[in-house]
Amino acid sequence: MSGGWSWFVIALVVLNIGGCGWLLWWTAKRRPGDPKPEDTSHIWDGDITEYNKPLPRWWINLFWLTIAFAIGYLFWFPGMGAFAGYGRWSSAGEHAQDKARDDARLETTFAPFKGKPIDVLAADPTARKLGRSIFSNTCATCHGSSAQGAIGYPNLSDDIWHWGGTPDRVLETVLDGREGVMPEWGTVLTGMGGENAVDYVAAYVRTLSQPDAPLYNDYMAAQGKKLYEGICVACHGIDGKGNTTMGAPDLTDNYWLYGSSKQSLVQTIAKGRHGSMPAHRQLLGETRARLVAAYVWSLSHGEAPGAAPTNGPAAR
């Protein structure tokens, strides 16, 4: 708060308190020349008369105590402009104290799981339960309460991982986030293969997951293969298996993050995509991130190392 606004607030506070005190003092007693209490000329039904009398002394004293309390409050707590008060209380400080107390309680709760490997935590029912609770509060907004995702948000309950599904890679994703970028290739492809170039590449990409389909050898797919090998192999590889180092998806499976329709594929190739997984290191801390990563990892790897998946593979 600037100095000018601070003094403006102080002036308003002093004026209001002073005004209340003056009004209370002025009306607390009768003065010479005041009409008699019964001389108000306000009479109803012949015998109901309005009087004009000061408040009882005990009531007036309560008002003075209220004003004294207000002055003491303003000395101890902030309220007089930029003056912080002698008690040095602030809502930010109160929040910090509450947060520190809650963090200490959480630290005690999560201490047994600190630093443990993801696959070990996945075998612990208590750890999985805590991880699921954290997932519901933090991750379900994008990935859904069942972790099966939606268009543009990965399904976490299957065995397909664009950035790798090892325990360390999953933890890295939760802690530091991911930025998946599919460049816009429409202009480049049109310059290389004509106005139908994007459709050609889309047709070829569709065949990668259906190598025995009749359209594998059709004209559009054949033209698209040439264009694919000139541009797309840098990320997705000559065989279309992708690259988990950079988050390039495997094009040979039946999972399509943004949908498998021709319209969706053409838009992806021509306009590109940008998917962002936020970093949760600061929000959750490492131990809670480990717990939620263990829960997510257990959805496709089973509840214990080497166990069968609990949900089974699903298209993701």
TrEMBL record:
<keyword id="KW-0997">Cell inner membrane</keyword>
<dbReference type="InterPro" id="IPR036909">
    <property type="entry name" value="Cyt_c-like_dom_sf"/>
</dbReference>
<keyword id="KW-0375">Hydrogen ion transport</keyword>
<protein>
    <recommendedName>
        <fullName>Cbb3-type cytochrome c oxidase subunit</fullName>
    </recommendedName>
</protein>
<dbReference type="InterPro" id="IPR032858">
    <property type="entry name" value="CcoP_N"/>
</dbReference>
<keyword id="KW-1003">Cell membrane</keyword>
<feature type="binding site" description="axial binding residue">
    <location>
        <position position="182"/>
    </location>
    <ligand>
        <name>heme c 2</name>
    </ligand>
</feature>
<feature type="binding site" description="axial binding residue">
    <location>
        <position position="277"/>
    </location>
    <ligand>
        <name>heme c 1</name>
    </ligand>
</feature>
<dbReference type="Pfam" id="PF14715">
    <property type="entry name" value="FixP_N"/>
</dbReference>
<keyword id="KW-0349">Heme</keyword>
<feature type="domain" description="Cytochrome c">
    <location>
        <begin position="219"/>
        <end position="300"/>
    </location>
</feature>
<keyword id="KW-0408">Iron</keyword>
<feature type="domain" description="Cytochrome c">
    <location>
        <begin position="126"/>
        <end position="209"/>
    </location>
</feature>
<feature type="transmembrane region" description="Helical">
    <location>
        <begin position="58"/>
        <end position="76"/>
    </location>
</feature>
<dbReference type="GO" id="GO:0009055">
    <property type="term" value="F:electron transfer activity"/>
</dbReference>
<comment type="function">
    <text>C-type cytochrome. Part of the cbb3-type cytochrome c oxidase complex.</text>
</comment>
<comment type="similarity">
    <text>Belongs to the CcoP / FixP family.</text>
</comment>
<comment type="pathway">
    <text>Energy metabolism; oxidative phosphorylation.</text>
</comment>
<dbReference type="GO" id="GO:0016491">
    <property type="term" value="F:oxidoreductase activity"/>
</dbReference>
<keyword id="KW-0406">Ion transport</keyword>
<keyword id="KW-0677">Repeat</keyword>
<comment type="subunit">
    <text>Component of the cbb3-type cytochrome c oxidase.</text>
</comment>
<keyword id="KW-0479">Metal-binding</keyword>
<dbReference type="GO" id="GO:0046872">
    <property type="term" value="F:metal ion binding"/>
</dbReference>
<feature type="binding site" description="axial binding residue">
    <location>
        <position position="236"/>
    </location>
    <ligand>
        <name>heme c 2</name>
    </ligand>
</feature>
<dbReference type="InterPro" id="IPR009056">
    <property type="entry name" value="Cyt_c-like_dom"/>
</dbReference>
<dbReference type="GO" id="GO:0005886">
    <property type="term" value="C:plasma membrane"/>
</dbReference>
<keyword id="KW-1133">Transmembrane helix</keyword>
<dbReference type="InterPro" id="IPR050597">
    <property type="entry name" value="Cytochrome_c_Oxidase_Subunit"/>
</dbReference>
<dbReference type="GO" id="GO:0020037">
    <property type="term" value="F:heme binding"/>
</dbReference>
<feature type="binding site" description="covalent">
    <location>
        <position position="232"/>
    </location>
    <ligand>
        <name>heme c 2</name>
    </ligand>
</feature>
<feature type="binding site" description="covalent">
    <location>
        <position position="235"/>
    </location>
    <ligand>
        <name>heme c 2</name>
    </ligand>
</feature>
<feature type="binding site" description="axial binding residue">
    <location>
        <position position="143"/>
    </location>
    <ligand>
        <name>heme c 1</name>
    </ligand>
</feature>
<keyword id="KW-0472">Membrane</keyword>
<keyword id="KW-0679">Respiratory chain</keyword>
<dbReference type="InterPro" id="IPR004678">
    <property type="entry name" value="Cyt_c_oxidase_cbb3_su3"/>
</dbReference>
<keyword id="KW-0812">Transmembrane</keyword>
<feature type="binding site" description="covalent">
    <location>
        <position position="139"/>
    </location>
    <ligand>
        <name>heme c 1</name>
    </ligand>
</feature>
<keyword id="KW-0249">Electron transport</keyword>
<feature type="transmembrane region" description="Helical">
    <location>
        <begin position="6"/>
        <end position="26"/>
    </location>
</feature>
<dbReference type="GO" id="GO:1902600">
    <property type="term" value="P:proton transmembrane transport"/>
</dbReference>
<keyword id="KW-0560">Oxidoreductase</keyword>
